[in-house]
Design a protein that fits this description.
By secondary structure, the protein is of the alpha/beta class. Helices cover about 30% and strands about 30% of the residues. It is built from 4 helices and 8 strands. Helix 1 (about 10-25) crosses helix 2 (about 45-60).
Amino acid sequence: MVRKKEIMDYNEIDRVLSRISHEILEKNNGVSDLILVGIRTRGVPLAGRIADKLASLENEEIPVGVLDITLYRDDLDRGGARPVVHRTDIPFDINDKKLVLVDDVLYTGRTARAAMDALIDLGRPRYIQLAILIDRGHRELPIRADYIGRNIPTSRNEIVEVLVEEVDEEDRILIYEDKD
């Protein structure tokens, strides 16, 4: 039996996203030229929630895009199942914008690298910042987040499972050991 431990619930996730939203406002001197892009799958609803919080603080809507990084992954040639490519939906110009890339977990850094490669193919933002709900360590690339919900030190055989209402019908973050 795998024991899962809850490390964050709905209230804690909401509180962390509020803090990240305030940090984004402070670091960017408001929301002028600010856009958010969520990495599929769970980064998308998190980006939407941050945008909603920013909009309520600044009375200005923040554009939110959806980024699929499947074709930019560096592990596609390792065989296994054929990847499922979803649609990237960024219906606005990213050139010279302050872009905040949003994802649920930062682990090796390879997803963030793939996302940056995909974004650069779409344009040249003024800069790219990274907002992460959970930073679990174990970087393989020199990538760090600008905004971190919580640092959760993990071992490589642990799994961090992020559940969000929009995808999973509940908000929780669990950690458990991979028995494989």
